[in-house]
Automatic annotation (TrEMBL):
<protein>
    <submittedName>
        <fullName>RpiB/LacA/LacB family sugar-phosphate isomerase</fullName>
    </submittedName>
</protein>
<dbReference type="InterPro" id="IPR003500">
    <property type="entry name" value="RpiB_LacA_LacB"/>
</dbReference>
<keyword id="KW-0413">Isomerase</keyword>
<dbReference type="Pfam" id="PF02502">
    <property type="entry name" value="LacAB_rpiB"/>
</dbReference>
<dbReference type="InterPro" id="IPR051812">
    <property type="entry name" value="SPI_LacAB/RpiB"/>
</dbReference>
<dbReference type="GO" id="GO:0016861">
    <property type="term" value="F:intramolecular oxidoreductase activity, interconverting aldoses and ketoses"/>
</dbReference>
<comment type="similarity">
    <text>Belongs to the LacAB/RpiB family.</text>
</comment>
<dbReference type="InterPro" id="IPR036569">
    <property type="entry name" value="RpiB_LacA_LacB_sf"/>
</dbReference>
<dbReference type="GO" id="GO:0005975">
    <property type="term" value="P:carbohydrate metabolic process"/>
</dbReference>
Length: 149
C-alpha cells in the first residue's frame, strides 16, 4: 500500500511525528510537503494530495490541519476521493471497513499525537468489508458522478 501525507502550517510538527511513526513501522509512506515548494494554504495542499490519490499514484492518504475539517472538505471535491475526519479508533476503522475511504484527516489542535498514531494505524490496518455497505458505497460513487462535468 502506497501512502501519501501532507499538512498545512497548523500541523507540521504533528504530521512529522505521525509520518516518522508510520515510516518506522514499515509503511510505504511519502511526505508530499506541497507547501515547501508552493505559496499556498490548506485547500491547495489537500487538492494536491487528493489528485495524487485520484490518479492512483497513492492508495491512501493522510491530511492534517488544525481541525482536519477543511482538508477533508477540499479532498472530497476531487473525483474518486472519499475523505473523512476521525479522532478515534472506532471511527477510523469504520471509515475503511464501511465507507471504503481512501483519505483520513485529523486535526493537530483536536487530538494528541500518541492517540493519533493509534487512529492512523487502525485505519491503515482496516480494509473495506463489503457486505451491506457495498450498495451504499456504490451509491456514493454513482451520485458523485452526477456533479462531475
Amino acid at each position: 500500500m502506497r501512502i501519501a501525507v501532507d499538512c498545512d502550517d497548523a500541523a507540521i510538527d504533528f504530521k512529522n511525528q505521525i509520518f516518522n511513526y508510520l515510516k518506522t513501522a514499515g509503511y510505504d509512506i511519502t511526505d508530499l510537503e506541497y507547501s515547501s515548494t508552493h505559496d499556498c494554504d490548506y485547500p491547495e495542499i489537500a487538492f494536491n494530495l487528493a489528485e495524487a490519490i485520484s490518479n492512483h499514484k497513492f492508495d491512501r492518504g493522510f491530511l492534517f490541519c488544525g481541525t482536519g475539517l477543511g482538508v477533508a472538505m477540499m479532498a472530497n471535491k476531487v473525483p474518486g476521493v472519499f475523505a473523512g475526519t476521525c479522532h478515534d479508533v472506532y471511527s477510523a476503522e469504520r471509515l475503511a471497513k464501511s465507507n471504503d475511504a481512501n483519505v483520513l484527516t485529523m486535526g493537530a489542535r483536536v487530538i494528541g499525537v500518541e492517540h493519533a498514531k493509534m487512529v492512523a494505524e487502525a485505519w491503515l490496518k482496516s480494509e473495506f468489508q463489503g457486505g451491506g455497505s457495498t450498495q451504499k458505497v456504490e451509491k456514493m460513487r454513482t451520485l458523485e458522478k452526477t456533479h462531475m462535468k
